[in-house]
């Protein structure tokens, strides 16, 4: 009983960290700038509420300074704050740069899409390391490789995705399957989320955001149920694999929706999409490696209670978090 209480306390701590950290995703910020005449045009500045229920404090400015006029502010679905307005600069937009500030742990970057009348279209990802971008014709645009790290962030800092991957690993251990079966299950999950990620980014399909979020939470809850229920005498492996593939499709939709505001550069769509997906796979592999290393070290202590305690604690965390997210997301959907 004491072990279960400690495990439950650890789970509550993780949930608390999730609410103040990454319950699902980081707040996304995007700036779109279009020059309609030399030195003048329109801008749209969009910020998405992060997992801490706060608007990212990210802001931007032109250098040299441009005057912003007729700025309007509106909310979209209680999750996105959108500011629209006009800018007036003393010279052509191509002679300016955009400087971002206010980066935080939950708001680590700003996506910039700028269309100067003179020069090439600019697509950049501003971060604390690269907080400014020149809009001139000699612009060194953010390389597509940046999307590799963005993909890693999305899987590693998306707690619902992390718990799903953890649940798959624990279910594999519970069933005492071999390494080939583990690779097969994660391959199916990868194929599923890669497919929907590509289809959504290319605009070939559309899905309801809130419904997808609720189904993702239900997929994690299903894993928790599989971890605690008694296995049948002859478990049906095919149905299990089909469910993993289906849940891969769901999680791929979640990845794509979280990237919707960021966008992908049209002139390098395939490469950035592949790099983003590769980043997700690297993050997923890192999670599995940490789990495998941890349980290997626990098993080498020759104290089976430690291993069982870790499994109980993780199962409680997965089930508790999934139940909370499911109820919360279904409530917001209806």
UniProtKB/TrEMBL annotation:
Superkingdom of this protein's organism: Bacteria
Transmembrane segments: 147-171, 183-206, 212-228, 240-257, 269-297, 309-327
Key words of the record: Membrane, Transmembrane, Transmembrane helix
Pfam families, A to Z: HupE_UreJ_2 (PF13795)
Entry protein name: HupE/UreJ family protein
Source organism (scientific name): Limnobacter profundi
Lineage: Bacteria, Pseudomonadati, Pseudomonadota, Betaproteobacteria, Burkholderiales
């Amino acid at each position: 009983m004491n072990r279960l209480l400690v495990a439950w306390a650890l789970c509550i701590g993780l949930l608390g960290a999730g609410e103040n950290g990454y319950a699902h995703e980081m707040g996304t910020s995007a700036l779109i700038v279009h020059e309609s005449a030399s030195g003048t045009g329109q801008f749209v500045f969009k910020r998405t509420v992060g997992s801490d229920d706060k608007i990212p404090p990210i802001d931007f400015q032109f250098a040299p300074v441009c005057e912003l006029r007729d700025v309007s502010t509106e909310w979209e679905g209680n999750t996105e704050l959108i500011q629209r307005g006009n800018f007036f600069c003393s010279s052509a937009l191509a002679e300016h740069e955009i400087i971002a500030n206010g980066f935080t742990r939950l708001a680590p970057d700003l996506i910039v899409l700028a269309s100067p009348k003179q020069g090439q279209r600019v697509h950049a990802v501003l971060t604390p390391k690269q907080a400014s971008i020149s809009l001139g014709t000699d612009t060194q645009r953010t390389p597509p490789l940046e999307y590799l790290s963005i993909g890693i962030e999305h899987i590693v800092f998306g707690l619902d995705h992390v718990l799903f991957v953890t649940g798959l690993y624990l279910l594999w251990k519970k069933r005492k399957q071999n390494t080939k079966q583990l690779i097969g299950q994660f391959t199916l999950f990868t194929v599923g989320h890669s497919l929907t990620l590509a289809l959504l980014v290319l605009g070939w399909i559309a899905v309801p955001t809130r419904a997808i979020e609720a189904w993702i939470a239900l997929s994690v809850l299903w894993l928790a149920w599989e971890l605690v229920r008694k296995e049948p005498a002859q478990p049906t492996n095919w149905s299990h694999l089909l469910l993993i593939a289906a849940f891969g499709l769901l999680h791929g939709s979640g990845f794509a929706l979280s990237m919707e505001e960021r966008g992908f550069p049209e002139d390098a769509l395939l490469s950035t999409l592949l790099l983003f997906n590769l980043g997700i796979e690297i993050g997923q592999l890192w999670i599995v490696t940490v789990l495998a290393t941890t349980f290997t070290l626990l098993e080498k202590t020759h104290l089976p209670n430690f291993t069982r305690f870790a499994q109980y604690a993780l199962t409680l965390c997965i089930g508790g978090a999934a139940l909370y997210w499911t109820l919360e997301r279904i409530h917001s959907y209806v």
